[in-house]
Amino acid sequence: MNFEFITIALIARYLIKWLVTSDVKTIWIKWLRWTMYASLALAISSVFLDRISNFLDFVSSVTLLGCAWILYSQPIFRSARQILIAILPYIIISMVVFILKWIFPGFYIDWKRILESLSIFSILWGIGVWILMMKQRKELEKANKRVKDQEHENQIVTQMKIALEVQVLERTAEITRQKDELQRTLEELQSTQSQLIQSEKMASLGELTAGIAHEIQNPLNFVNNFSEVNKEMVPEVIQEIENGNLDAAKEVLNDILTNSEKINYHGKRADAIVKSMLQHSRKSTGQKEPTDINALCDEYLRLSYHGLRAKDKSFNADFSMDFDQGIMKVNIVTQDIGRVLLNLFNNAFYACAERSRNAVNEKHKMPGDDYKPMVRVSTKLLFGKIQIHVSDNGNGIPPDLKDKIFQPFFTTKPTGQGTGLGLSLSYDIVKSHGGELEVNSTEGKGTEFVIQLPVV
Questions:
Q1: Distance (Å, rounded) from C-alpha 392 to C-alpha 349?
Q2: Euclidean distance between CA atoms 118 and 121, whole angstroms
Q3: Which residues is 379 bridged to in the sheet?
């Protein structure tokens, strides 16, 4: 059997497989298949056609040389040229053998053994290189497969990324829509809160109306009375001057001057009450100003007391004030702290009134149990803070409710008598001033609220 034809068939098969693996569509595949089949046929024929064996040797040598030339010259086989390393030694030896056999037969006979050994060596060389090439080819195929797998994974990742981006855009749009809805809801809540705060202010102002009227009436009475006295004293002055009694006229004029000063004082007092009422009804500006805490407590305590007395004729309570005169003015939002004090005073008087009514309604009253409702207000300067104590001897707060009293809309008053915002707003106002609002209460004995405000 002619081994060259077998070699040509193997080369053709390798190149066909290489072209198919490389995804190259070319007419070379067709020609290589024909070459492979023809080489196998000629290899088999060489066994039976001994007469033309020399011709077949020539054909095989030329064909093998042509295969080498095609591998070297055609760009499409550039990546497969490594096969030349495997077959080139065999091609060279085959051509030498063919030339010596036909041109120098004597020399061929003398060197036949060596040439056969070289042929065997070239065959082994080709097999070794072939095996190495096949290993490299498998590694290359694995590398290509890994690259393709990586590309496939990248495509999947890209598709997932696109899908994720779409989901993110949709989610972002949904979040934006929800944010806008929440923003609108927040604005509505803030508007509602402002309305509730204003309603609470107007409700407390309504409760103060009677007290304000009472507080204004007193200085107005003084103004009217002293005005009448001055009016009566003017003719007397004129009469004394006409009589030439200047000393007596001076005495009367001094009395008129004293009365005028009293009229001015009580007029300013009424003006201050009206301004306080207007300030309480307006929206807070948040502007802090030096304020006399003692005077503020005195003013709102009296307004609360007279307001409740005018509102409820059966209301009967007493109050006491113990102010630290060493307290200097403190920078606060007067309107806001006044609202806090008013709320605490109203709650204290309400607690006393409730206990007083309960005491009256008791069927079996203990002998000697004389309840006297009392609200005490005191101020003092302690450790750089002003403390305002508002205490009552009402029913006190049950322990299970003490932690809830500063919550918005929580109230123990009957429906229609409280919004539940008073203490909540008071707590926020005191906190905004950097202070503290604490409560101490014993059920059945009374409650004390303590406001602490920093001096600076």
A1: 7
A2: 5
A3: 388
Dihedral through CA 241, CA 246, CA 248, CA 251, nearest 10? 110
How do strand 374-382 and strand 318-322 relate by DSSP bridges? parallel
| Side-chain-side CA neighbours of residue 408 (13 Å) | 6
Orientation of helix 246-281 relative to helix 334-361, angle to 10°: 90
Secondary structure class of 374 (helix, strand, coil): strand
Q: Where are the domains of the chain?
A: 3-158, 285-360+371-456
447 pairs with which residues across the strands?
392, 441
| pLDDT (average), residues 427-445 | 91
Token duo for residue 48: 């039976």
CA distance 108 to 115: 8
Beta bridge partners of 454: 385
Of 313-317, 373-377, 427-431, the poorest mean pLDDT is in 313-317
Q: The tokens of 55 are what?
A: 């011709």
Give per-residue pLDDT as tens, 207-241.
556 556 666 777 777 778 878 877 878 888 888 78
- AA letter at 294: N
pLDDT band, residue 293 (cuts 50/70/90) = very high
Structure tokens at 299: 């003013």
Q: CA dihedral defined by 409, 410, 413, 416, rounded to 10 degrees?
A: 20
148 by Cβ neighbours in 10 Å (0-12 / 13-18 / 19+) ranks as: exposed
- Candidates 3.40.50.720, 3.30.565.10, 3.40.50.10610, 3.40.50.300; CATH matching 285-360+371-456: 3.30.565.10
Residues 6 or more apart from 371 whose CB is under 8 A from it? 355, 356, 359, 393
Q: Are residues 32 and 16 in contact, defined by beta-carbon separation less than 8 angstroms? A: yes
